[in-house]
Amino acid sequence: MVVEKDALLNNSTKKQFEQYKRIVRFLIGVVILSLEMVAYWYVWVKYYNQHMEVPYNRTGHWLMVAVYGLLLVIFNIIYGGWRVGYLRTRNMIYSQTLAGLCANFMIYLQITLLTKHFLNAGPLLVMTAIQFIVICIWSTISTRLYRILYPPRRVLLIYGEHPVASLMGKMSTRNDRFVVGEAIHISADKNWNDVEQGNATGMEEFEEIKRKISQYEGVVICDIPSHIRNLLLKYCYGKSVRTYTTPKISDILLRSAEKLHLFDTPLLLSRNVGLTFDQRFVKRLMDIVLSLAALIILSPVFIITALVIKAYDGGPVFFRQDRCTKDGKVFSICKFRSMIVDAEKEGHSIPATDKDPRITPVGRIIRATRIDELPQILNILKGDMSIVGPRPERVEHVELYTREIPEFPYRMKVKGGLTGYAQVYGKYNTTAYDKLKLDLMYIQNYSVMLDVEIILQTIKVLFMKESTEGFADEVSAEIAEESKAT
Question: Tell me: the pLDDT tens digits for 280-296?
């Protein structure tokens, strides 16, 4: 009883500090933003203002610094550079550095337009190097300070029938944010309707769960039956207890529904048709313009890569493979060949693993840098794919996943994409079910701005190790065996 009172007191004290969390993050962000703006003010006044036809005075300097600050704000919001406490220190450094590089590149273009000359970029490069050092120091100090003020949250895990080891493993990698104090299993076999009906046995068990909830700072609800989940969510909401819930497919569909007020009863409308005509038109126009521009800009990369692949073993430059896109339509995807010739000569699917011996030395480089994906620009121009959308899966994988997850074809309500929501926010070896959820979040919440955000986020994840991982060996073997059987 004493332990429970201490836990309640602790939770109450922490909740009081929670309200200041945004202010703390804001102040920490202001520090690094101010330092970067001061550095740019010095570089602009000392090295670039003098090259103007009519040099700026004090007001002009403030305007230039304000524009630079706005660029930093925009790119840090896109790449999450100020998400202190949410990102690890190394990811904070990476996000901040990427935001700084983008802002510095854009400001150099502005300087070029204002001075009408391509000036020496040396001062900006030195500034960038100094910024990187400051960012490293700032990220380390701010992350440690934040963790002192807001230590890891102790949570209660309530899970259902599906294995919870995967989620537990993922949460254990972020012990700076979560500490799972206890896990409770909810059986689907039990009739939890008894709780609502006042059944003594059911009520007693539910009261025990509520008692445990009061001892923790949050509750993780993972794949439990809907009726008991609803009871827990309502209870936690009434008690102002934070919840983390893994969504079901139906949750994602409802989340994107429109509110209708035709009667005095709330209605939620889900159209369930994918993209509208105007959305498809704008998306296709953007695909054509951006893919044409990319093809022109990246043409030297295409030529060099093709020559190197051909010179290595004399085999074909391109690799083609049947994939599924919108409405299950099959098309031939085009990639630079990264494996030996006839890598799948046995006639069945063999997904690549992290250290697959079939990958050539050239292939390892172009796969790590994602250059092998570039020929898909031709698929985009042809109309088989889009720049942004769910990654098109192999035909045999679609058949396999559909047998295990009947909702899997939902992701084919739009064209497959070169990059997508699951590629930005997931990993290459993210489970098929989780990829489906991520893809549905994109489809159900589509907008042009979401496409732009994903394109910019793709730049960030391009060279992150976790984003280039292959299937785990056991998953690869399982898919290969299933493919043989079918």
Answer: 999 999 999 999 999 99
